[in-house]
Design a protein that fits this description.
By secondary structure, this protein is mostly helical. The chain has helices at residues 3-14, 18-41, 68-79, 91-96, 109-113, 136-230, 235-287, 292-342, 347-404, 412-423, 439-459, 468-472, 477-505, 514-539, 541-557, 572-577, 580-592, 596-623, 629-632, and strands spanning 53-58, 83-86, 101-105, 127-130. The protein has three domains: 3-44 and 438-632, no CATH class; 47-162, 3-Layer(aba) Sandwich (abc type-2 transporter like fold); 191-398, Glutathione S-transferase Yfyf (Class Pi), Chain A, domain 2. Strands 2-1-3-4 form a four-stranded mixed beta sheet. The two termini are 28 Å apart. This is ABC transporter.
Length: 638
């Protein structure tokens, strides 16, 4: 009797009546009921979160132009991710299970978010009230939602703060630009002042030299008049000398007076420039926002710097007036001396007056000479001070003009983009090599594998693992084993076909490789049927129990939900050794579009289990050709 014949006889035996046929149909539907109903119920639970009741308590009173509590509430209600109920209090509702969780925004939420502006920074606190007695995963999802709310609020507040900071930089740049303009004008004015003081220094030096010459001439005039007075006997000659000397003095004094008046005009013009510069500087400083006290301090400092100029100007103006008087007097002296030679009467009296005037003129010229020499000594100091002021003003201008370019000054779109990057610097770009469409699709490989194992398990509640007739007839052990495995293998293929069809077209879980997925499921079914067939053939009723034990071991080690690496290390050998982990791995690659090379390795391992299980069934068939008392009357029958 061939293995196919034995398989056909077994199928005919289990379908030899109406009720057995219904039983076989029920066996074919067991994996369908397990896999399809569970996957249907869990296909996309996240799409139904809007049915989950959650409480939202908004106590935030707002702060300034920010009402973060209202903004958060509006976003949550608009998103409709949960069935939000806006209430005043929610603790009792969460305790009684009316709400899965509650989110509370406290009264000072907005105030805390803006507290950094008052230099009293503190965090805004979101209160999440959960109760795992309601649902553990609900609490976990709520924590994720609150984390997202926290991230969004943080990004918004940080972005607004960064935008204000950048806007402040723009304002600082604008004001600094104004300061640069003022510094430029100050530098230009200081340079002009330095140049004018240089001209003044040159003029004062020349004036001092002329004053020395005039003083020498006046001294000579004084000596001459003294001599004239003492030598009245030689009146005609003396008068002639006096007339000549007086005319020389008059000419020198006229020249000195003319030069003195010219330099006096320049000195007065310089004082006018300084006065105007003081006014311009005060105006610029006030425009730049300096206080009146600061402006007056600067003017006082400038006044101290220009004091030598003012003093020199006063002396120059006085000297010019004195020289004009001296020139006028000298001219009169010369005229008188000339008249003296023609008008001898009254000469003695005139000589006396001339001597007195010459003495006064000599004394005045000496005072003028001393004053101009002091002025000539002070103007170099004033010149150095003006040069330092010009250099400092130039450095101020260079520093401000160089620094203004380092201050950010973005336009509105650029500033908004930079603020967004500062406030929310990290974005996540998802790059999924393979992806399950829904939560149910993600669990499908695991539950399809479990359903296939359970389907194989229930087959041998009805099928006999080995044909007693074939054993009694002394058939080949391998033939008997194959004959016992083939009916289950055939029904297993039927189970897989029905299950795959419903999961694909009714539950609507679409594999990336549908033909490969079905073929791999068929291989899984053949392997699992062979394993459970071997256990039943070798151990009888105990084999059914061992099949349940293997199911439990594979549930905890296959890595169907969490990555298998998360199981305790002592369970690693179970993952590597048992077939369910390879079955789940192969289905994932076929359903999600992963690397098919891994599928080949998984298929080879399942084939190895299939061959090994058939070998064990053959050994069991060989041993059961010998009838024993326990076999005729077993202690346990399931």
């Amino acid at each position: 009797m061939s293995a196919l014949r034995m398989a056909f006889n077994e199928i005919r035996r289990v379908t030899s009546g109406k009720l057995p046929k219904l039983a076989v149909l029920a066996l074919a539907l067991v994996p369908l009921l397990y896999a399809s109903l569970y996957l249907y119920a869990n296909k996309d639970p996240y799409a139904n979160l809007n049915h989950v009741p959650a409480a939202l308590v908004v106590k935030d009173k707002g702060a300034k132009d920010l009402n973060a509590g209202k903004d958060v509430a509006d976003e949550l209600l608009k998103g409709q991710k949960f069935n939000w109920k806006v209430v005043d209090e929610a603790d009792e509702g969460v305790r009684k299970g009316e709400y899965i969780f509650a989110l509370t925004l406290p009264e000072d939420f907005s105030e805390a978010l803006t507290s950094a502006e008052q230099n009293k920074p503190r965090q805004g606190v979101l209160t999440l009230t959960t109760n795992d007695a309601n649902n553990y995963l609900g609490s976990t999802i709520a924590n994720q939602v609150v984390s997202e709310v926290r991230r969004a609020v943080t990004a918004k507040v940080s972005t607004e703060a960064a935008d204000k900071l950048l806007l402040g930089f723009s304002t600082i740049r604008q004001e600094t630009t104004k300061a640069v303009d003022g510094a430029k004008q100050l530098a230009d004015g200081s340079a002009t002042l330095r140049d004018k003081i240089g001209e003044l220094d040159t003029g004062v030096q020349q004036l001092s030299t002329g004053a020395v010459t005039a003083a020498n001439g006046a001294a000579q005039l004084r000596d001459g008049t003294h001599e004239l007075r003492s030598q009245t006997a030689a009146l005609p000659d003396g008068a002639k000398k006096i007339a000549d000397g007086a005319r020389q003095v008059a000419t020198g004094n006229e020249t000195a007076a003319t030069q003195a008046e010219e330099y006096a005009k320049k000195a007065q013009a310089l004082v006018g420039v300084l006065d105007q510069a003081n006014g311009d500087i005060a105006t610029r400083l006030r425009a730049l926002g300096f206080t009146e006290e600061q402006v007056q301090n600067v003017l006082t400092t400038l006044g101290q710097v220009r004091k030598p100029v003012d003093d020199a100007n006063g002396k120059v103006q006085g000297a010019a007036g004195d020289l004009r008087k001296l020139a006028t007097g000298a001219d009169q002296v010369a005229a008188g001396a000339e008249q003296l030679s023609s008008k001898m009467p009254g000469l003695v009296a005139g000589v006396g007056r001339l001597d007195d005037g010459a003495t006064k003129l000599a004394d005045g010229n000496a005072q003028l000479r001393d004053g101009l020499q002091k002025a000539a000594t002070g103007t170099p100091q004033l010149k150095d001070g003006a040069a330092k002021l010009a250099d400092g003003s130039k450095q101020l201008y260079d520093g401000l003009s160089g620094g203004v370019d380092k201050i950010p000054n973005q336009d509105d779109p650029t500033r908004a983009a930079i603020a967004q990057a500062i406030g929310d610097p990290v974005a996540v770009r998802g790059l999924s090599q393979t992806k399950a469409a829904t939560y149910g699709a993600g669990l499908a490989p695991f539950f399809l594998g479990l359903a296939t194992w359970i389907g194989a398990f229930v087959l041998f509640l009805l099928l006999r693992p080995l044909s007693r007739r074939a054993l009694a007839a002394g058939q080949s052990a391998l033939r008997v084993a194959l004959g016992g495995w083939l009916p289950g293998a055939l029904l297993g293929i039927v189970q897989v076909f029905v299950m795959f069809t419903v999961v694909r077209f009714v539950v609507d879980i679409e594999p990336s490789n549908p033909f490969g997925t079905f073929g791999f499921l068929a291989l899984m079914s053949l392997t699992f049927v062979a394993i459970l067939h071997a256990l039943n053939a070798a151990f009888g009723a105990v084999g059914k129990f061992l099949g349940l034990i293997l199911l439990i071991l594979q549930l905890v080690s296959a890595g169907g939900t969490f990555p298998w690496q998360t199981i305790p290390v002592p369970l690693y050998p179970l993952h590597y050794g048992l077939p369910m982990g390879y079955a789940v791995d192969g289905l994932r690659h076929l359903m999600y579009g992963g690397d098919l090379g891994s599928v080949g390795k998984d298929a080879l391992i399942l084939l190895a289990w299939l061959v090994g299980a058939l070998a064990l069934s053959s050994v069991a068939a060989y041993k059961q050709r010998v009838w024993t008392a326990s076999k005729l009357k077993p202690e346990l029958v399931l």
